[in-house]
Amino acid sequence: xxxxxxxxxxxxxxxxxxxxxxxxxxxxxxxxxxxxxxxxxxxxxxxxxxxxxxxxxxxxxxxxxxxxxxxxxxxxxxxxxxxxxxxxxxxxxxxxxxxxxxxxxxxxxxxxxxxxxxxxxxxxxxxxxxxxxxxxxxxxxxxxxxxxxxxxxxxxxxxxxxxxxxxxxxxxxxxxxxxxxxxxxxxxxxxxxxxxxxxxxxxxxxxxxxxxxxxxxxxxxxxxxxxxxxxxxxxxxxxxxxxxxxxxxxxxxxxxxxxxxxx
Length: 263
Description:
Elements: H1 12-23, E1 36-38, H2 39-54, H3 59-65, H4 69-88, E2 94-99, E3 108-113, H5 115-118, E4 125-133, H6 138-148, E5 157-159, E6 166-168, H7 177-193, E7 202-208, H8 216-228, E8 232-233, E9 237-242, E10 248-252, E11 260-261
Parallel strand pairs: 4-7, 7-9
Antiparallel strand pairs: 1-2, 2-3, 3-4, 5-6, 8-11, 9-10
């Protein structure tokens, strides 16, 4: 007789049910790909796809592990673009968006109209590229969370030399360690993306997965370190936000041509 493992095994019928649910979902990537739509409609569909996925029998596992293309694109592209649109959409600026699921050097095209565009305070057309600032152990932490139901965080993860398995142990942060780690990851993403040629008027969206709970002052300190680093970038603006709280920040460059310095 098999011994209990301490973790409930997922019944085989749930995997089959998951596949059926996925086929009959009201919204898929195909509803976004290369379709020009109102920005708020885009947000509604993206959040709806997230909730619909979450409610599936194995939806939380799919969102955590992101093994399928749909969940990966949803978490890493569609939701960040929706967050940016919500930060920019207003009575004075209406936005349309066309997300393209391809290998082009941008993730979406935005078209804006309204008073801000007429006064040249917002671009009529722009491209957006999305990237993620995250600890290298994040995918392991998510897997451990899914398998064990808990984890102490990304910095306490180590591989047990005897078993070859990853284990999570508590990690005590000191002073500004969390903010410094975040600033370092943000700078890594900016420098990596700065090596790629992008269309004129491209906005870089950086989704930040925080290693631990952050006070707003810790978030602001990390952003200030990035701005004070003197990093040079090609983008008209860089929009940063965290995936857990409601923290966000924008780094603008000079309106002139050429490389821009953090401000």
